[in-house]
């Protein structure tokens, strides 16, 4: 009795059932997460508080100047008493490398800690939803009730207050960003007197709009559909990675409380759906690890509180590795995992490079560029002349006097330079110099030649630059 | 999530069904739809503001009146505004003063590259070194036909130059020509013989090239005793120069070596100043100015800084 059509429709029904079980959060329903206190909630507040540095940092002064200032018009980066010029930008690359690998290392050890506790999207969204739940109710039911309530002065007042607070935070975010790039106090004055420069207004407008839209309206949709990190995370996980996970072995089969008691025939999960209610991205952790999980641990706090109330041991939902949950044995210690070791090595190298860079910042930058059109010229007495452009950047805070000399090539003489060259702080001095060599002394097409700049006044600085002297074959 | 929009049992379909598989009408996310419409709106705004719809001859102009050439001119005005203070000072300074001022000299070296490339590099080469054997004078060595001071370079640029060496094909026997060729090459290496010097003087070469064969900058006669060749040091080429001369109108095989004048008005002015006269008395109103006086000064400094300026 096999009816092929019937059979296929049975299996497609199965597929439909399966699909309907896997909800795709495309923003159709607003997530209203319940707020609960707990260990991880505290940790989240702590992680979020780190962002106060972003808001307050620009007002820190050092030697009467803004302590950290990215001075783009003057191409200088001030970091306390250190000034970094574009020539030292390689340190920025290492800094970026450090943080990128740090992200990967942390992800491999404990999942998306960054997402759950530090990411600006999480932090700003958390603050925005905190305001919203205070004003409009902290459960989907209350929020729905507020939404469907008839229009009243109080309702309009609450909605207005919510958007005003959102906009104030958004504008503060934009203003604080701009404050890292120009004098912070002056910037406030400029904004309030409407004198700010066009880039400052653009930054303010973009950050205000971006914060308001991303944290106010898009929220977890950014994590789901915009953030590349969410897509990369799975390759950084392994079976030893600690993740918020539901202990299905202990929890299943789930069942409601019977007469206020846990049903002894069922598992520990009483299917109260509290873990779902508190989730800021609206997922059900009991379905296992999934894309929407930002590993913030809110569900752990929620479940622990329920376990406490029902007199069961905590940790039905907990930070656990796949190995611990499914193979029942402990994870490999962190520093015996190859990928953690490799990440650690890269972290140390990049961090070491940045430290080296900061402690070995050269007070000058010296460059010798040989002329290439032509490579060399024969003079009337037959000697060979090469032309060079010398560039010296004075990165100190004081004017310097420099004397140039050459070495490394027997018989070569330096021409066309003044005895002493004066260079103002922060300026590049560019000079043309000629080196001559008797025709008989030219015995190869390319000879090494060393230019040395001696700083005569102030610190005893000698800067060498290895260049070339070109001649006929 | 309380509701589940993706439950296939609750989603309407298009009515298409194949083997039990229904084509559902799941709408895309609202934020996605909104951004699609917003981008469409942006296209509309662009169409209104900028030239967009192609017509038979041209296109719609757009409310902003933007064109590429206007943008180019705006950019040009911007760069000229940056240069203006320098250019104004340059107009007031002599070439020598520019050379002595570090800031102005660096500005000229940086900003004259294009001017030199457009007007000079075709013959003299980008770095003042022409293609070997092309016969154009080298500008970056210390050998100068008419003098390498900054004022002489200005004069050369303004007036232009055309040296003259008569053809000697009818004045010398073949043997004498051979000997003079050898003498010129030997002199360049500092190995000239007594007999060579004797013939050099007998044939009157000294009249232009000097008794010591070191040339004459008044005439543009080159120095024969240095290592620099005006044309070429190959024996056949030296022979051609001796036999057919340079710029000798009577010899069809003569070498042509003419530097055009770039500012006749400045040339006249320099001449008047040489005699202590008022240049206004000298002008006849027909003087051409292919390059401005400021441009001549900039080029003179640029050439002077190639490495051979004196």
Structure write-up:
Chain B: One of its GO terms (cellular component) is plasma membrane. Chain B: It holds the Pfam family Cytochrome_CBB3. Chain A has 473 residues and is an alpha+beta fold. Chain A has 3 domains: 224 residues, no CATH class; 93 residues, no CATH class; 107 residues, Immunoglobulin-like (Sandwich), CATH 2.60.40. Chain A has 17 helices and 16 strands. In chain A, the strands form 5 sheets. In chain A, strands 8, 9, 10, 12 and 14 form a 5-stranded antiparallel beta sheet that branches. In chain A, strands 13-11-15-16 form a 4-stranded antiparallel beta sheet, with no helix packed on it. Chain A has a 3-stranded antiparallel beta sheet with strand order 3-4-5, with no helix packed on it. Chain A is elongated. The mean pLDDT of chain A is 87. Chain B is mainly alpha-helical. In chain B, strands 1-2 form a two-stranded antiparallel ribbon. In chain B, helix 8 packs across helix 9 and helix 8 crosses helix 11. The interface between A and B is large, with 41 and 36 residues.
Key features of this structure:
heterodimer, A: 473 residues, alpha+beta, Immunoglobulin-like, 3 domains, 5-stranded antiparallel β-sheet, 4-stranded antiparallel β-sheet, elongated, B: 310 residues, mainly alpha, Cytochrome Bc1 Complex, Chain D, domain 2, two-stranded antiparallel ribbon, 14 helices, 4 strands, 47% helix, 5% strand
Summarize the structure.
Helix content of chain A is 44%, strand content 18%. Chain A has 17 helices and 16 strands. Chain B has helices spanning 30-49, 68-92, 95-100, 102-111, 113-119, 121-124, 150-159, 174-188, 194-202, 206-209, 235-244, 264-274, 279-282, 293-304; strands at 13-18, 21-24, 54-55, 58-59.
């Amino acid at each position: 009795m096999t009816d092929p059509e019937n059979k296929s429709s049975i299996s497609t029904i199965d597929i439909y059932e399966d699909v309907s079980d896997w909800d795709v959060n495309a923003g159709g329903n607003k997530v209203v997460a319940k707020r609960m206190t707990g260990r991880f909630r505290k940790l989240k507040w702590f992680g979020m508080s780190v962002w106060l540095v972003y808001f307050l940092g620009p007002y820190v002064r050092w030697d009467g100047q803004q302590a950290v200032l990215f001075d783009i018009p003057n191409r200088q980066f001030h970091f306390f008493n250190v000034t970094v010029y574009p020539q030292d930008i390689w340190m920025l690359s290492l800094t970026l490398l450090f943080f990128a690998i740090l992200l990967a290392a942390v992800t491999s050890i404990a999942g998306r800690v960054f997402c759950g506790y530090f990411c600006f999207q999480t932090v700003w969204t958390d603050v925005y939803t905190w305001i919203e739940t205070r004003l409009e109710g902290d459960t989907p039911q209350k929020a729905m009730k507020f939404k469907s309530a008839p229009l009243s002065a109080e309702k309009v007042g609450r909605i207005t207050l919510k958007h005003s607070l959102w906009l104030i935070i958004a504008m503060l975010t934009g203003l604080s960003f701009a404050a890292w790039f120009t004098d912070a106090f002056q910037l406030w004055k400029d904004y309030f007197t409407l004198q700010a420069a066009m880039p400052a207004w653009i930054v303010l407008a973009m950050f205000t709009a971006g914060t308001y839209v991303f944290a106010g309206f898009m929220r977890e949709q950014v994590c789901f559909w915009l953030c590349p990190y969410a897509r990369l995370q799975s390759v950084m996980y392994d079976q030893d990675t600690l993740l918020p996970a539901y202990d299905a072995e202990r929890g299943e089969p789930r069942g409601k409380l019977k007469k206020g008691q846990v049903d002894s025939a069922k598992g520990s999960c009483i299917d109260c759906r509290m873990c779902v209610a508190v989730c800021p991205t609206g997922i059900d952790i009991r379905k296992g690890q999934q894309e929407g999980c930002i590993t913030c641990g809110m569900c752990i706090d929620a479940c622990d509180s329920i376990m406490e109330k029902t007199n069961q041991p905590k940790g039905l939902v907990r930070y656990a590795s796949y190995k611990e949950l499914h193979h029942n044995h402990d994870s490999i210690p962190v520093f015996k995992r190859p990928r953690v070791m490799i990440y650690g090595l890269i972290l140390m190298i990049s961090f070491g490079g940045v430290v080296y860079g900061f402690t070995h910042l050269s007070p000058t930058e010296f460059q010798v560029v040989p002329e290439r059109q032509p490579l060399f010229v024969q003079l009337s007495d037959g000697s060979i002349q090469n032309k060079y452009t010398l560039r010296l950047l004075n990165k100190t805070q004081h004017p310097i006097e420099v004397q140039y000399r050459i070495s490394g090539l027997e018989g070569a003489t330096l021409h066309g330079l003044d005895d002493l060259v004066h260079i103002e702080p922060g300026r590049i001095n560019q000079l043309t110099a000629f080196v001559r060599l008797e025709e008989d002394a030219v015995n190869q097409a390319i000879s090494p030649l060393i230019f040395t700049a001696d700083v005569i006044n102030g610190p005893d600085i000698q800067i060498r630059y290895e260049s070339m002297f070109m001649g006929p074959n | 999530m309380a509701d589940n929009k993706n439950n296939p049992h609750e989603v309407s379909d298009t009515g298409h069904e194949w083997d039990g598989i229904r084509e559902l009408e799941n709408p895309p996310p609202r934020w996605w739809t909104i951004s699609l419409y917003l981008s469409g709106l942006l296209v509309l705004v662009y169409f209104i503001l900028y030239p967009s719809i192609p017509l038979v001859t041209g296109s719609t102009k757009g409310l902003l009146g933007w064109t590429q050439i206007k943008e180019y001119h705006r950019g040009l005005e911007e760069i000229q505004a940056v240069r203006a203070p320098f250019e104004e000072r340059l107009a007031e300074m002599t070439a020598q003063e520019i050379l002595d001022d570090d800031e102005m000299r660096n500005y000229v070296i940086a900003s004259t590259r294009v001017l030199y490339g457009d007007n000079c590099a075709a013959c003299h080469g980008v770095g003042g070194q022409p293609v070997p054997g092309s016969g154009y004078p080298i500008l970056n060595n210390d050998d100068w036909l008419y003098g390498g001071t900054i004022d002489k370079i200005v004069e050369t640029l303004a007036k232009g130059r055309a040296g003259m060496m008569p053809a000697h094909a009818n004045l010398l026997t073949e043997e004498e020509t051979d000997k003079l060729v050898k003498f010129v090459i030997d002199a360049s290496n500092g190995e000239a013989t007594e007999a060579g010097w004797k013939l050099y003087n007998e044939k009157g070469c000294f009249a232009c090239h000097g008794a010591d064969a070191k040339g004459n900058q008044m005439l543009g006669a080159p120095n024969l005793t240095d290592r620099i060749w005006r044309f070429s040091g190959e024996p056949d080429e030296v022979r051609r120069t001796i036999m057919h001369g340079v710029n000798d109108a009577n010899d069809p095989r003569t070498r042509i070596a003419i530097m055009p004048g770039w500012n006749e008005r400045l040339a006249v002015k320099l001449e008047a100043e040489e005699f202590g006269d008022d240049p206004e008395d000298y002008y006849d109103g027909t003087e051409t100015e292919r390059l401005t006086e400021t441009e001549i000064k900039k080029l003179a400094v640029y050439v002077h800084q190639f490495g051979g300026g004196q």
